[in-house]
Write a structure and sequence with these properties.
- This protein is of the alpha/beta class.
- It is 48% helix and 19% strand.
- The protein has a domain of 213 residues: Spore Coat Polysaccharide Biosynthesis Protein SpsA, Chain A.
- Strand 2, helix 2 and strand 3 form a beta-alpha-beta unit.
- Helix 1 runs parallel beside helix 2, helix 8 packs parallel to helix 10 and helix 9 runs antiparallel to helix 10.
- It starts with 5 loop residues before the first strand and ends with a helix.
Length: 328
């Protein structure tokens, strides 16, 4: 049997409530040359009952329960190993495609820009009840230089400009290394940086997928525990010694690192202090004045950035409410 063009991968754990929506959104795609691999990481809910009717209905749907709980990142890598397609499209069990041409549009972008190692789209944010509450679109339409995107990541304290795995497509051949299991929160960001060192990013501002935010997510738990802050600080401060990076990236990273050290759990100070020393050695003389000026600029502009984001969110909610009323 010939391998499919695209492998859609759904690693899932206790997402039976949302899983049918995710699977239906894949089967409804206009592009049909795909396989759908669903890896259940020993869920305690009725995930198997939800998935098995889809396996009976469509031979492209493959489902298996892991022999033991692998954890989030290892389950992602397990899915990657099972994939037979040339292109990889993750879709988490609580997310879904919101456009019937999500796969075909991302494939078209990869073909349009031969230098691209990633294709990504804007994404709609859903709440627990599948209501659209926001939209994330952080980049301009078109192809972006990979190293410039990495620099922008570092300058913005790790803001995920590319998006979550549900919003991204890449070639399996480029990602044979797999996701780095040392990370729990920035697993996807670390992979995007790994790939963008080799090429560019194709981006569309049209939302093709929906990313759900709810308290049961691993992301929410990591944020509450401080894992996310520490991982961002340590990884970015370590990465910032790359010779090709502009020296200006050190300012926001050091600011984030120091703030994270103040907020973090006891026992991590020594590692983070060493990261600070490594960064400040890049500056040389006068770095304290530069850092002081950066802190002033950050604090002065932050209220205006927050106001702009709040206005954008209110506008999106107003527009989404109007669209729902028209649909009725």
């Amino acid at each position: 049997m010939n391998p499919p063009k695209v492998s859609v991968l759904i690693p899932t754990y206790n997402y039976a409530r949302y899983l049918a929506e995710a699977i239906e959104s894949v089967l409804a795609q206009d592009f049909q040359d795909f396989e759908l691999v669903i890896a259940d990481d020993c869920s305690a809910d009725n995930t198997a009952e939800v998935v098995r009717p889809f396996c009976a209905r469509d031979a492209r749907v493959h489902f298996a329960v892991n022999p033991a709980n692998l954890g989030m990142t290892n389950n992602w890598n397990h899915c990657l190993k099972q994939a037979r397609g040339e292109y990889i499209k993750f879709l988490f069990g609580d997310d879904k495609f919101i456009h019937r041409q999500a796969l075909s549009k991302m494939l078209a972008m990869m073909g349009q820009y031969p230098s691209a190692v990633l294709a990504a789209s804007a994404r709609t944010i859903l709440d627990e009840e599948s209501n659209a509450v926001d939209i994330y679109r952080d980049l301009a339409e078109g192809c972006h230089d990979g190293r410039k995107i990495i620099t922008a990541y570092l300058m913005q304290n790790g803001k995920n400009l590319v998006g979550e795995p549900s919003a991204v497509m890449f070639r399996k051949a480029d990602a044979r290394r797999g996701f780095d299991a040392r990370y729990r929160q920035i697993t996807d960001v670390e992979m995007w940086i790994h790939l963008l060192e080799k090429g560019d990013l194709a981006y569309t501002r049209q939302p093709l997928c929906a990313f759900r935010c709810h308290p049961c997510q691993e992301t929410e738990r990591n944020t509450a525990s401080g894992v996310g802050r520490r991982e961002h600080a340590v990884f970015f401060s370590t990465y910032a010694v790359q010779s090709w990076l502009p020296r200006k990236v050190v300012f926001p990273i050091l600011f984030h690192l120091r703030r994270s050290r103040r907020q973090n759990t006891p026992g991590t100070d020594s590692e983070m202090l060493e990261c600070e020393r490594r960064l400040t050695r890049r500056w040389g003389k006068g770095w304290r004045w530069c850092y002081w000026l950066y802190c002033i600029r950050y604090r002065v502009t932050k209220p205006f950035r927050n106001l702009a984001h709040s206005a954008q969110k209110r506008f999106f909610l107003w527009r989404a409410r109007g669209q729902r009323q028209k649909a009725r």
